[in-house]
Amino acid sequence: MVIAAAGLTQLLSGSSPHQARTSQPPTAAPAIARFALARLGLRGRQPRDWHRAAHGDRLELRSADGTMLLVFASPTSGSFVARVQHDAERALLDSYKPAAIVTRRRGRLGAAAASPTEILATQRGHRIRILSIAAASRWRTYTVALFSALPPVDNRLAEAGQILSSVRFAAPAG
Description:
By secondary structure, the protein is α+β, with helices and mostly antiparallel strands. The chain contains 3 helices and 12 strands.
């Protein structure tokens, strides 16, 4: 299963070897919307100007300027974080060549412990960052991928970090 993500390593762990670029001067805090995918037991908050699309058992959130894409999926019930993280990393490394793992750290996805991996890759001749995250709830294992242009935009990194910290899990519906 191919999943997308970008460089939020510094938000999850406090540092990154890659500098972010700044976008326009900060403006008022963005309006917030809620997102949910009940069949996966997944919910959270996003800036209202991010575009949301559900595709079966996958939820995509794209920044308004198109520089970031977050993809949430849950490939299995039960808790299989290590296996799901390994499979997600392999799929990303195989799909975006040349690609390399830059860092592996411990982090959080909402309140859940997570294992984020930062990957530097190439897509259509452009360097991108992918943050691949695996976490589990009592019911399912989740994988999240955050794709970002290089260098990432500060405002969008902050927004993506807020989205990831807002994630909550519940019993899946249906």
